[in-house]
Every structure is written in structure tokens, then in C-alpha cells.
């Protein structure tokens, strides 16, 4: 039986970064930049004013003060978006708006409030001249050309996961579309005669398909595009047909049918359609776990992750294996979940030498962070997963983590960690 690390290494060895596509900027949020981006021009393209005021020559106002202001002749005005049609002569000034190009000859901007403009307007006087009572620093309130990015600058590196500031920056250099790694399409299939879709009237002795919906929601959160294949019944013909239906995806995720039960036919069909690399991992929950490659009609090898049937096992397997696989397919370096150290309020028992992932709630107390179990830990108890903020880990070679011991807790990336943010957190992201 493989260790978690060995199983993950095999998964990551068989999944690959997907091809690049161009998408509109508003569709690029959360996607990964597929190539380095360089600035095609300066931003700003011209030196411009950071304030509403007057463009001046510093030498003309070097003696200005509140008591003895210097009066300059106003020779023109320039708005944002327009080019100055007049320069600043000796003894002159140009009225200028924020963002407007700095006229030739000016080496500083004096804001309106450091002149007598307000008083002149109140007195009904024109603005053919202006009194300045401030000595500006060299270049004061002037944004130089290329201050943000200069022509040829590396603006963003390949692998950057795009967010609102990055998308705004791409727009600022004229990108209407972004070159990105496309979202992985992940086909999701449930198996078993006992499973029904939640849209159906429940029949006695049957249960609703929680695995597909939980898996699809997690996959979407991690940046994939889930494709729901529905439910394959426990017969070889239907199972084979459903699996083939999913072979146009980038990854196929199934649930149930991979353990040693008499009706677990998924193993046989998977072996027929491709090669399965492993069937079990030394962990609890989620020991029965299949992974391998299926042969698609177009010649591609489609990775398959066969999840256990119990809903908690399925979600834990997704967190530990599907999440990093999706990251790699998206062109993102797979990283572990953030972790904290917390004191156990209750023991975690390890009876069979597997790595135990116990569902816990984190509490911040006066003496630090504490982890308490979310109730009974059966792999069928989905409520215990819904209450959990993370998974407390008991290693394979430890028979018990006793109450009062410090343990590592993986924090789910769908939980709200803001309430836990203290100096005691040791986030590894």
C-alpha cells in the first residue's frame, strides 16, 4: 500500500499543464498567465500632473511665500486627455488638471490651494494671472513618463494567477484578451445501484448522490470546470459507456466501486479501458483510491481518480490528490494546504498504521489554538466534514495523539480562516 507522499508523486507525474488559450479579460480572473508579458509602451506615456493646479518653472517662484507671493501670467490650460498646445515661458504658468500632460518648460506643479485662485474667483477676477505662495520641490506633483512601467519592462511572469489588479494592469497596456492556461474540464461520475440524483423522489433503501455534487463544488473552487456525467448503475455495459462519455475531459473523477466488494466493477472496467497505477493508499479515511490513465479515442491519456464511495473519504481524497493535480493542470505550482499547530482536546487513535486525517474544529483560546473533533469520525458521516475547518493529522507510525498534544492541522481552503488569524498561525502558503 502506497504512502500519501508516494501516491501524490505518482498522480503529479501523470498529469500535465494544459494548453494556452486567449480569453477576454473578465473571463481571465483566477486563470494562470501562459507566458511572460512585456510592456509595449511607457505608462504613463507622457509626464503628467498628479494634481489640479499650475505648471510652473521653479526658478520663477523660488522666492514665493505667504507674505510675498509671486505673480505669474497664465498662458493657457491643459486638460487630461489633451496635449498641451503651449509651453511655460519664463514668468508664466499653465493651468493643468490631474492626469494632463506637463507642458514643455514646466518642472513642477503648484496645487490650486497654494495659489490665490479661490480668492480671485470669489472676487470675480479673471485667471489671466495667478499669485503663487509656495516654493515647489524639483518635479513636485509630476508623474514621470514610464513611472509605472517602461517600454520593454517585464510586467508579469508566466505562472501568475490573475486577479483584479493583474487584470487591470493587462488592460492598461492594451490587452483586451489574456493568454492563459485554460480551465481543466473534469468529468464527474457516481456509480452504484443504490445511488439517486437529488432531483428524484427518494426510493426506499437508496441514497442521494452527495459525492458528485461535493466533488464538483470542490473542483470548481479549485479552478476546474466540472462536467456531471450522472450515475452509472452496477452493470458493465452502463459503466463502460459512462466512462467512455467522460474521455473527452482532461480528468475523470469517479466515486465508489474501487474497493474489494463483490459489486465493485469499476476496477475491471478501468483495467479494460486503460492502465491503473495504484488502488490503495495508506491513509484513513480514503484507503481505497484508484489512479491511472484511460485511453481516449483521440489518442490522449486521460487521468482518472477513482474515489471511495463514502462521502468523507471522497472529499478527503479530493483534498489530498485532486486539488494538487488540478493546480498542476492549471499551470500553478502544487502547494500543500496551509497548516497550523493546535492542542488536541480529544485523542486521535490510530489502530492500523495508516495516516489518520481527523476532522476538527479550531478554537482560539487564551493559551493558543485548540482542535476538537467534530463528532464521530465514521467516513459515512458527512455532517462531521461540514462542521470541520481542517484535518488534524496522526502519522502512520504513531498509535495515538493524546489529548493535550500539539498536532498539525491542515486548514480547508473553503473554510473561513480570517477568524483564526493570529501570530500563532504558521501558514505555509
What do you see in this structure?
The chain has 429 residues and is α/β, with parallel strands linked by helices. It folds into four domains: 4-17 and 183-329, MoaB/Mog-like domain (Molybdenum Cofactor Biosythetic Enzyme, Chain A), CATH 3.40.980.10; 20-44 and 147-181, Alpha-Beta Complex (Molybdopterin biosynthesis moea protein, domain 2); 48-143, Molybdopterin biosynthesis moeA protein, domain 3 (Beta Complex), CATH 2.170.190.11; 339-420, MoeA, C-terminal, domain IV (Beta-clip, Beta Barrel). The chain has eight helices and 28 strands. A hairpin with a 5-residue loop joins strand 20 and strand 21 (301-307). Helix 4 (210-221) packs parallel to helix 7 (311-329) and helix 5 (236-245) crosses helix 6 (266-273).
Brief digest:
By secondary structure, the chain is an alpha/beta fold. The protein contains 8 helices and 28 strands. β20 and β21 (301-307) form a beta hairpin.
CATH superfamily of the largest domain: MoaB/Mog-like domain
Distance between the termini: 29 Å
Count of individual helical segments: 8
Strands of the widest sheet, in order across it, are 16-13-17-21-20-18
Which radius of gyration do the C-alpha atoms yield? 32 Å
Q: What class would the helix/strand composition place it in?
A: alpha/beta
Main sheet makeup:
6 strands, mixed
CATH topology of the largest domain: Molybdenum Cofactor Biosythetic Enzyme, Chain A
- Classified by CATH, the class of the largest domain is Alpha Beta
In the predicted model, the low-confidence regions spanning at least 5 consecutive residues are none
Give the CATH architecture of the largest domain. Answer: 3-Layer(aba) Sandwich
Compute the number of strand runs: 28
